[in-house]
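Fold tokens
===========
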Amino acid sequence: MTEDIAALITELEAQEERLQFSQFTNADALALGNLLVSLAVERSHGVTIDITRGDQQLFHVALDGTSADNDDWVARKIRTVRRFGHSSFLIGRRFAATGKDFAESTGLSLSMFAAHGGCFPIIVRDVGPVGTVTVSGLPQADDHALVVEALAAFLAR
């Protein structure tokens, strides 16, 4: 494992420790979703944004420049986060660091799972993951960075 990927994995793990909620309500999902939309529109990002709690989709929007393909990526990233309990970017980077192929190593179908950045677990402190916030439409590191930026700003208020 290179120092760069090791440092990235350490940072991704730290993000999950740092970006936790005391609770997560439908109103929180709406406010976080609207924040993500504002950031994306301000930067002319064509992205799909999705927020879930449990099995319920609380927020979903597809901005100009997206297609049904982005919805598929969202669903695949969500399944990955739910399966592993960590951000889809962290899961992908962990496999990359070991040189192992995600699908081959896990036996999971790439048509159902995606270990690509953009989906982050909604973690309630002392409870654990309760949902997901997902962005699809940018390169995977940028999808992830947009989610993290929005979570940090939302939690800082």
